[in-house]
Design brief:
14 strands; seven-stranded mixed β-sheet; formyl-coa transferase, domain 3; alpha/beta; 15% strand; 18 helices
Length: 408
């Protein structure tokens, strides 16, 4: 779909790389420009896997790695020449870093007026907090998500995945796609200022709108819902299930399933508004019913009566589920040194499109290929740049099994 589109990614770890992974999944040629020491997301102390890290192996699948010293004049010139051929540049440096390196949007447009750029930061490129350091947890707390996550009587909790980082990457991807469409319509590139904070505030969605217009607080509900009952997890004899009986037809079916038809007509439970007002009455009744059954028995009942519900799966159960397997959500790529790496695939599915299935790169794995293929260098020229510390080049060992070698 995005064949022929070239993205230069200066991103690190997650916020600056997840958007590029999505673009690579859609067929863009994503060239990861890394410092000679590598993206910080390669740190094997975080989510270690076989001497590498799950962050790098997931966030950088399908990309090319060019190791380049952007602080050197020769390195910047190589980058400028790549920009002349590129469609977009993505980074997640703190505000001002791109300008100090001489590679901000204003400078890059002198080389390529149509270039689209997107910068992902914690708090954005302007405002009183713009220079504050930001990690996912910091932004989750700042945006209100930590406050509304967790059980009502417990301490606040972070969302289980780095949602601020991931949201920043997703909105960076959308920004790049919007910029590319806009360029086709209007002929010029644009710069996108993507704040992780703004991204998470947007994900507050209707709760934010309700608060802004009513003044009512948004509070922690655990798996429950402020406006609907039953809508939560229930403990069974050997685990949990969730029930989301939002419409009255589902509530009535649930009453039949647990053999409590009296609840259909009880004024305390006959409709959702009454159930919300009498939550302390109806929820214990349902809790007692589900504790009589195993998780499997509860799911069979929910499915038999066509009631929205699901088991509370652990991650292993997720990938063992026939529906997940039928949707092709587990894929495998062949890593240059680690062998087969299984990963959770892109959720996007298109007619007549087969997603690429390429490995995360070794540091500098594609430096030689990109400089020769795109910029006209020959092998001796690349070797000279590597020896002078301008670029890093990785080549598999020629003797024995392949193994990573530090960029020269």
């Amino acid at each position: 779909m995005l064949s022929g589109v070239t993205i230069l990614e200066l991103g690190q770890v997650i916020a600056g790389t997840f958007g590029g992974a999505i673009l690579a999944d859609m067929g863009a040629d994503v060239i990861k420009i890394e410092p000679l020491r590598g993206d910080a997301g390669r740190n094997p102390a975080i989510a270690p896997l076989r001497g590498d890290t799950a962050i790098h192996l997931y966030m950088n699948r399908g990309k090319k790695s060019v190791a380049l010293d952007l602080k050197s004049p020769e390195g910047r010139e190589i980058f400028y020449r790549l920009v002349e051929q590129a469609d977009a540049v993505v980074d997640n440096f703190r505000p001002g870093v791109m300008a100090r390196l001489g590679i901000d949007h204003a400078e890059l447009t002198t080389r390529n007026p149509g270039i689209v750029t997107a910068t992902v930061t914690g708090f954005g490129e302007y405002g009183p907090a713009k220079d504050r350091p930001a990690f996912d947890l910091v932004v989750q707390a700042f945006s209100g998500h930590v406050h509304i996550t967790g059980d009502p009587d417990s301490a606040p909790a972070r969302v289980g995945v780095p949602i601020a980082d991931l949201a920043g990457g997703i909105f960076a991807c959308i920004s790049v796609l919007g910029g590319l469409v806009g360029r086709e319509r209007h002929g010029t590139g644009q710069h996108a200022d993507v704040a992780m904070l703004d991204s998470l505030i947007s994900l507050l969605s209707y709760d934010a709108l309700h608060h802004l217009n009513s003044g009512e607080p948004v509070t922690r509900q655990g798996t429950a819902h402020s406006y609907m009952v039953p809508w939560q997890a229930f403990e069974t004899q050997d685990g949990y299930v969730v029930v989301a009986a939002r419409e009255e037809k589902f509530w009535q079916r649930l009453c039949d399933a647990i053999e409590r038809p009296d609840l259909k007509d009880d004024p305390r439970t006959a409709h959702n508004r009454a159930r919300v007002q009498n939550r302390d009455y109806v929820v214990p009744i349902l809790e007692a019913e589900f504790r009589k059954r195993t998780r499997a028995e509860s799911m069979r009942l929910l499915e038999e009566y066509d009631i929205p519900g699901a088991p509370v799966n652990d991650i292993g159960e997720v990938f063992a589920d026939p529906q997940v397997q039928a949707r092709g959500q587990i894929r495998t790529y062949e890593h240059p040194t680690l062998g087969p790496i299984r990963y959770n695939a892109s959720p996007m599915q298109f007619d007549k499109w087969e997603f690429p299935n390429e490995s995360a790169p070794m540091l500098g794995q594609h430096t030689e290929q990109v400089l020769i293929g795109r910029l006209g260098y020959d092998e001796s020229g690349v070797t000279a740049l590597a020896e002078s510390g301008v670029v890093g080049v990785w080549r598999p060992e020629t003797e024995g099994r392949e193994a990573q070698r530090r960029p020269v």
